[in-house]
Amino acid sequence: MSPASLDKPLTLALSKGRIFDETMPLLAAAGVEVAESPESSRKLILPTSSPDLQLIIVRASDVPTYVQYGAADFGIAGKDVLYEHAAQHPGGLYQPIDLNIARCRLCVAVRRGFDYEAAVHQGSRLRVATKYVQAAREHFAAKGVYVDIIKLYGSMELAPLVGLADAIVDLVSTGGTLKANNLVAVEEVAQISSRLIVNQASLKTRAAKLQPLLDAFAQASQAQA
Ligand code: PRT
Ligand code: MG
Fold first, then answer.
1. Same fold across 3-103+193-222 and 104-191
2. Where is the ATP phosphoribosyltransferase catalytic domain (predicted)?
């Protein structure tokens, strides 16, 4: 590896919104400030107060891809996203730290009044709409329930209301979105939080720059838990 690439700043991949917002205090704990916000700036590469660290802003579900291919040295992504990514691209990502940020629950939800228990026990196929195909498939397989999975990319809450599906598997945080759409959570699939993920080559070749940040993140997230 050339000295030039060793001097390059580390690149941390983040998505804007809750993950960016909840990562800022962790960076601050590591002594790093970020002057611009991705909400107001259109820049996709953001410098930080440290010459050793820059941020890239990508879609939440693209974070593992950037890290896996080494375009980012490390990144922060929800366990939901990592689970779906791992199903397509097994191995290759080191997940050293649960940061305890962007917490929520992955749940099965149905229309209020829909008899989920009866539907599950009848042995008939349940139609389930979700963005989380892998997690949903494994959840119902473990229960021995036959399901037809319908892949959606967003607004899952609509599916049971218009007859596209009997149930959805989606993230729930306050429960406000389910309530506003006359849906109820009937089962928890998993507890979700965001993880730090690290490119395996970066971990070996850039440890001197990476390790102090990993340590600071681990300490700050433990304080939050
Ligand atoms: O929005 P976009 O399509 O770009 O991507 P994304 O939805 O994957 O990104 P983003 O930034 O919305 O979420 C990033 C990560 O935050 C997710 O991968 C989760 O790990 C985590 N997270 C935590 C959540 C929530 N809480 C959450 N409540 N992600 C999404 N939601 C959505 C949920 O899907 C539902 O539509 O918020 C709605 C429910 O919220 P409540 O508060 O009404 O229950
Ligand atoms: Mg979103």
1. yes
2. 59-217
